[in-house]
Input
Amino acid sequence: MRAILIILDSVGIGAAPDAEQYGDVGSATVPHIAEAVGGLSLPFLESMGLGNIPSILPDGKPIKGVNPVEEPGASYGAMQELSEGKDTITGHWELAGIDMNPGFSVFPPDPPSFPDDLIKPFVEQTGRDILGNKAASGTGIINELGEEHIKTGKWIVYTSADSVFQIAAHVDVVPLEELYRACEIARELCNPYRTGRVIARPFRGEPGAFERTQDRRDYAFQPTEPLILERVHDAGIPVYAVGKIEDIYAHRGITESDHTGNTEASQKAVTRFTRERKDGFIIANFIDFDMIYGHRRDVQGYANALQQTDAYFSEYVQLLSPDDLLIITADHGNDPTHHGTDHTREYVPLLVYQQERPARNLGLRTGFYDVAQSIADYFDLEPMPKGKSFL
Output
């Protein structure tokens, strides 16, 4: 038996009740994309019940082109995040069973974002000075400071609305191993600040044509409670991680990982694990929605990515056995029609597919950790501390 958890990075479905606290009132990633492009064509997800979810939400917005169906192929619902924050780690950790309250700390957006007590030892221990030290978009700051970085060899360090310390370096100036080592140093230095992630952001190219590589690495704050991945792994059930999952969960509770750099590669890895492994827990992050389209406010690109993934799922489910459990959800929103370039505080969709179980309305779930509890239930493990199984 296998449980497969697919996290569609940033595919939110409507503003959460506390969206005002985050400046995200009115955000609704999938409905707004559908409206902006004149309608989405997602025949598989529609047949599973994606179009039924807005009716569950308070003030839910319909998804143009994705209609409700009378007999959905999957159980459907929506989940409200309870942890403080709207970053990747917060959402993923709550999906894995942890309630992040208090949440991670964030750095101020205006320079200097990082305090001297953090920057001085970082410079001393890495042997390189810094540029930036402010909140910025990843592509914007390398275009702004990339040429100076090449000339001086200084790190480009920056943050965002998330709890992150990001380090950008040109691959011809700083070898990847040195960049990763600098991130390990920064991870230790950031722990007292309760920083969610340190992120390596290598890039290549010439001034005016810089591009980030797929050698990104995330260095996560260590969870203080057991994750569902660890519970499953400790029970002797193999856990297969795809995409940036191993970094997000600090390499805990994982049997084997395929650290892919984009959604297409992640889809191939999920398919490979499903074909080759007849039991276990497969957990994957499909990153392009957030990394390439959401943060860059590329509405059409996001729509195309949704439609490509829909086509993938229609073929993928044919690989599943009758008792396999497939859960499709998200970790937060990133409405490309919303202001700014950051994540949005939203409900996330929930689709739960098992061939031998009748579909039903799972309703509005309070807490992403219902996913972890359901996986524990599926594998007949001791219950997680939080959450209610939807199986």
User: Anything to note?
Assistant: Residues 299-316 form the longest helix (18 residues). The chain has a mean pLDDT of 96. The longest strand covers residues 197-204.
